[in-house]
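Hey L., structure's done. Input below.
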Amino acid sequence: MKTYVKSSFHASQLIFLITLGFNLPFIEPNTDYSTLVYKNCANETFSDESAAASSYQKTLDSMFNQLLSHSSQSKFFRITAGNTHGRISGLYQCREDITNQDCHVCVTKLPYISSTLCNRAKAAEIQLSGCSLRYKINSLSLQTKDQLPAGTIKYDAERKDCSRERVDMDRFDELRDSAFVELESQVFVRHGRCTVQREMLRAMAQCEGVMGEQECIECVKHAASIAKEACERAVSGQVSLSRCSVSYLYGQGGWDGFAGGGYPYLGYHNGDDGYHDHSGRLGVILGGGAAAVLLGLLLLVLIWIARRKDG
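Output:
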């Protein structure tokens, strides 16, 4: 006697799974705010095994813990930790356009990255795509030319990101320049962060929370001039300096503000060595996953057909 297995797999379920499989290649990944933008480490370190070095390390750890404790409630926090002879001043700042939870997750990565890249340095700056950290031992008289190495690790380190796609529109330069002028005039008035729009062009600027008015304005003006020169008529562009950032986007694409590590919706960014295309690698990953799902669905269809014949 044959034993028949009644299939509980209905056509509606099959259609749903096939639809899901075809849509998988278009699912966008979550933005990673922990991409390293730049590091900046002082030459002086407390690398010996003295009691003073141990005390500094404990103070630095305490400062990190206090910064972390505030990162889920505030996008910016500044603190001075330690006693009179070993004070360390530090701060973190997150992008204003990310959530408090994303800010907290980003800040939690800063102490490890700092200790790895700037091991026991007496002053350091770390900028990730979503947040940044600065600290300095108060007794250290920090002079850029004396304490910080030149080249790619420098006080006013900059990062330029420009899309490969170009804008074919006569008034683009006029719109971009007008938006940048408003950013320069309004960024400090709007508490260090400003977003403006000119028709289909959106632009954003952000300054570090402790910057004075003139310093903030000059920083944004400098970043904007770099963006104009470096990106020219690119659809999107971003310039990150050590204490401010400027970015813009023309068109209807997704808006990721200060992406730091590039523009996910375009798949391109450029560093010191030119343009890089990440969209192909992402397409292979997602396309491969979708292909595996579709093969599984095909197998289910064959099983379903076989069971119907048996029935």
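The chain is about 40% helix and 20% strand. Helices lie at 11-23, 51-70, 100-117, 144-147, 172-186, 213-231, 279-310.

-- N.
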